[in-house]
Amino acid sequence: MFNALNISAAGLTAQRLRMDVISQNIANINTTRTPEGGPYRGKHAVFQEIPDQGFSRVFQNTLNRPALGAGVRVSEIAADETPGVRVYEPGHPDADTDGYVSMPNVNIIEEMVNMISASRSYEANVTALNSSKSMIAKTMEIGR
Question: Are 4 and 128 in contact (CB under 8 A)?
């Protein structure tokens, strides 16, 4: 009965972390110098299913059906390996000898689409959590 709450909570946590990564990308969209050297590299959250280790997994295996998961988690924050854009700005302090500056590989349009997607996913998890709480409350009322 409480598994649905745990799944929704895992989804909320993962989407919140995804939003944090997107916010970091947007905040560093013009960062041309990092401690590692070179321009900022965009990042993205990689999600992984949390396998269910409880009774439902054993039950599903007995029925020869695939077991349901127990939610999602962020397995890593991966760097985006796409190349950044080179912009001609000879007066910029990070310009090379030809006057070009290597800019971050962050695309504001992609980041905004990802932010909307993460926001909608977060809202869906909140709705599922509230529905689960409501069903649990109704179940408790039946027992009275």
Answer: yes
User: CA nearest 25: which of 93, 108, 88, 140?
Assistant: 108
Domain that holds residue 136: 3-29+43-79+106-142
Instruction: Note the pLDDT of residue 70.
Output: 77
pTM, to two decimals: 0.81
- CA separation for the pair 41, 32 (Å, rounded): 10
Quick check: is 96 in a domain? no
Say how far apart CA 95 and CA 86 lie, in whole Å. Answer: 10
Q: How many structural domains is the chain composed of? A: 1
Any domain includes 134: yes
Q: Is residue 56 part of a domain?
A: yes
**Residue 59 predicted with pLDDT over 80:** no
What ranges in the chain are assigned the alpha helix state H? 3-27, 55-62, 108-142
